[in-house]
From TrEMBL:
Subunit structure: Homotrimer.
UniProt superkingdom: Bacteria
Gene that encodes the chain: eda
Gene3D superfamilies for the chain: Aldolase class I (3.20.20.70)
The organism of origin for this protein: Paenibacillus whitsoniae
Protein name: Bifunctional 4-hydroxy-2-oxoglutarate aldolase/2-dehydro-3-deoxy-phosphogluconate aldolase
Length: 220
């Protein structure tokens, strides 16, 4: 049941912060600011040096099951290329797994432990294969190669597919993606780039609040 609830929570929250940084401490700071701004689904990518430290730290601070709204967040791992990486992240506290491509062994591992897995897909063939493996949400990646109209094209032959575009999603086009049928969106560098340039990480919270506002407006 926990997997089902997590999928419902991710879909309800609608915005996933995809975080990359130079150190685990930097990523934890980004995550805390994103959560403060209202983005409650955090994806820590494995390209971060010692990324598991950041996942473990955040998993201890936040929970998807808490009744305390200030401590509620869903912490997951991104750029999981193989099942070994996925399992290590799960043991460190990751509650969902995201990959840049479809790796059947990673999907099998996540299904074994009832952990939501979102592999990156680019083609109808990829998405069909993911569905056949039991994937519940497919990451359309890289999203900047497509327009929101791609979701309608996918849902023609595959109306049952839940699509989460990641890469190229911005404040200016988030509404279009949601209205096109995206179950959620992944936000990467646009969320954190200003903070990294200036060293002012409060800018992450401000940008996160703007994304949440745009998401809620699109859902209405």
């Amino acid at each position: 049941m926990k997997k089902i609830k997590l999928l419902q929570q991710i879909s309800s929250e609608g915005v996933v912060a995809v975080l990359r940084g130079e150190t685990p401490e930097e990523v934890v700071e980004m995550a805390e600011q994103a959560i403060e701004g209202g983005i409650k689904v955090i994806e820590v990518t494995m390209t971060v040096p010692f990324a598991l430290r950041a996942i473990e730290d955040l998993a201890k601070r936040y929970s998807s099951t808490t009744q305390d709204a200030s401590k509620f967040a869903i912490i997951g791992v991104g750029t999981a290329l193989d099942p070994e990486t996925a399992r290590a992240a799960i043991l460190s506290g990751a509650e969902f797994v995201v990959g840049p491509s479809l790796n059947p062994a990673t999907v099998t591992l996540c299904n074994r432990y009832r952990v939501p897995v979102m592999p990156g897909c680019m083609t109808i063939a990829d998405i069909q294969a993911a569905l056949e493996l039991g994937v519940d949400i497919v990451k359309l990646f890289p999203g900047n190669l497509y327009s929101p109209a791609m979701i309608k094209a996918i849902k023609g032959p595959l109306p049952q597919a839940n699509i989460m575009p990641t890469g190229g999603v911005s404040l200016s086009n988030l509404g279009e993606w949601i209205k096109a049928g995206a179950v959620a969106v992944g936000i990467g560098s646009d969320l954190t780039s200003d903070a990294v340039k200036t060293g002012d990480y409060s800018l992450v919270a401000k940008k996160a609040a703007q994304y949440i506002e745009a998401y809620r407006a699109a859902k209405q």
